[in-house]
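FAQ: What does the model actually see?

It sees only this:
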Amino acid sequence: MARRPVGDYGKKGAIRMLRNVRPAVTMSPVMSYEDVVAISDPVERAALADKLMWADHPRRLELRTVRGIALRAALDSGVPADAIAGRLVVNVADLTWMAAPASPAAA
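And it is asked to produce this:
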């Protein structure tokens, strides 16, 4: 009996292998801008807006504004800056420019 070359699993073997393969990317529905704005916790709202901004959301500039407003609200309510920075996975120094209002030049 001849040996099959490495990687040659035959028809049944190939079908079995394909059944065990998971898709590399799972598609999830993109949250709408209105869904993000409706989140009551400012830190969570800022984190989600930031995440969607980098995921090529159709309303990126508006999400940047939401993120800035949410960050200012969180800081004004007394949430420690290091806790916010940890949730957004940024440096504390980055919160200064992230909380700043978006300039018209950014549009």
